[in-house]
Amino acid sequence: MNINYTPHQKNFRAEVREWLADHVPGERLPSFDTKEGFERHREWEATLASGNWSNVNWPLEYGGRGLDLISWLIFEEEYYRVDAPLRVSQNGIFLLAPTIMEYGCNEQKARFLPPMASGKEIWAQAWSEPGAGSDMAAITTKAIREGDHYLISGQKIWASRAVFADWCFGLFRTEEGSERHKGLSMILVPLDSPGLIRRPIAQLDGDTGFAELFFDKVRVPVENLLGPEHGGWSVAMVTAGFERGLLLRSPARFQAASARLVKLYKQHKDRLSSGVGEQVIQAWMNTERFCAATYQLVSRVQAGALISSEASANKLFWSEMDRHLHRTAMSIMGAQAELEHGLDAIDNGRWLGGYIFSLAGPIYAGTNEIQRNILAERVLGLPRVGV
Fold this sequence. Notes:
The structure is a single chain. A hairpin with an 8-residue loop joins strand 6 (196-201) and strand 7 (210-221). By secondary structure, the protein is α+β, with helices and mostly antiparallel strands. The two termini are 41 Å apart. It has helices at residues 7-23, 35-50, 69-81, 90-103, 106-118, 232-244, 251-268, 274-302, 310-333, 350-358, 368-378, and strands spanning 123-126, 142-146, 149-160, 167-173, 184-190, 196-201, 210-221, 225-226. It has three domains: 7-118, Acyl-CoA dehydrogenase/oxidase, N-terminal domain (Butyryl-Coa Dehydrogenase, subunit A, domain 1, Orthogonal Bundle), CATH 1.10.540; 123-232, Butyryl-CoA Dehydrogenase, subunit A, domain 2 (Beta Barrel), CATH 2.40.110.10; 249-378, Butyryl-CoA Dehydrogenase, subunit A, domain 3 (Up-down Bundle). Helix content is 46%, strand content 14%. Helix 4 (90-103) crosses helix 6 and helix 9 packs antiparallel against helix 11. The strands form two sheets. The chain has a four-stranded mixed beta sheet. The protein has a four-stranded antiparallel beta sheet with strand order 2-3-7-6, with no helix packed on it.
């Protein structure tokens, strides 16, 4: 595959590179799973918005630049090349925003997209429940309509960014007596609503990247319904497609990590076996394959194609690729891999954090077991288990 950029795309890359060189913080920000880090990352989102860089393929009126997905890939390549901060607003700008653009009314687009782009409102994803993790169709949290409001009661868990975020989007059961995929609705909820309690969940590193949410007759205006009432499953599947497919994990994120892996290997190769070098080469090849496949997919989408089961295949590939890449880095460092601080820590323990996070890849955005079932049934035509 030969990727040839147009003169316009080359000029755009130069513009992105120049702006980032002038604005990216000189040191890494604290984790956005801490209060200080969250607010520092919010400030960075505002800086991005000041130059209309929050998401370059958004329409101009909502804070974007009205460009295509190829331009977005170019932006991401330059963004990760300079090790710019991770996006604390990713649940909003990469998952919810494209869903709003597809299902939202004009009033919802004008209300939610600009503050999302500027970082004034950061979004959490609130789908999973104690009895409905990978099986979202088992959701039981109710949103009972009462006049021009819903009264929400129930519990969500593993709500990403919900400890410090301003809003959440979630699936709620709005039709009494409904079961499974039917009777669910996507509703947007302010996290400071009366009756809503947030309980932080500590990760392995002690930071709070998730929260439990407890709803006790939380009143939410009906105007916060996204898409058709009782038709939220289709809306959520579109959002999941963005999460698994193109937007949540750009190839540049993994290419930057593979470049760091090659550098790490060169620093330690004199004491390593040849087998480790083969794993490094495989990791680098995987990221390049993923990049080429993404460019091909983007080209098809821009020509009018729809993303279907490719989203599941994408998610399977990047999650397993990320785990292999970081596992290879850990094997290179040996016992030093466990050090996060001190003179003997390599890269300030960054590889350890990346490795721990990579272990979650086969779980979030739909477990890899579920994605394999989807591919087996919808692509290969195999029968459902138990049928």
